[in-house]
Amino acid sequence: YLASLGDFDVGGQLCAEGEHPEEVYVVDTHNRLARFDGRFVHWVRGHGGGDRYSVVFFCTNPACATEKRVAFQGDFVPHGFGAVARSVS
Questions:
Q1: Under a CB-based contact definition with an 8 Å cutoff, are residues 22 and 89 in contact?
Q2: Which residues pair with 1 in a beta bridge?
Q3: CB of 59 within 8 A of CB of 51?
Q4: Could you count the other beta carbons within 10 Å of the beta carbon of residue 85?
Q5: C-beta separation of 63 from 8 below 8 A
Q6: Which of 8, 20, 25, 38 could be bridged to 50 by S-S, CB 3.0 to 4.6 A?
Q7: What are the angstrom distances between the C-alpha of 89 and each of 60, 61, 62, 64?
Q8: Exposed, middle or buried by CB within 10 Å (0-12, 13-18, 19+), for 22?
Q9: Dihedral (C-alpha) 22, 25, 26, 28: value to the nearest 10 degrees?
Q10: Entry pTM
């Protein structure tokens, strides 16, 4: 899970390759929570207009391991959240 915070107003989207390198998700995480698998190749687009911070939640305990399926889960809606991350491309 991750979110980006800060007063930036341009760019800063999370980009992640899917199962194939030509499949790229571009996800707006500004003030939004996303369910993302960091084991996929990923990067952040350049940003401007202020500071950008990433908040990332993950577990390294082998008992919590999951299968590597998709880089970004677009239908994820956290309980009690109105703003969720959506793929922009």
A1: no
A2: none
A3: no
A4: 27
A5: no
A6: 8
A7: 30, 33, 33, 30
A8: exposed
A9: 180
A10: 0.78
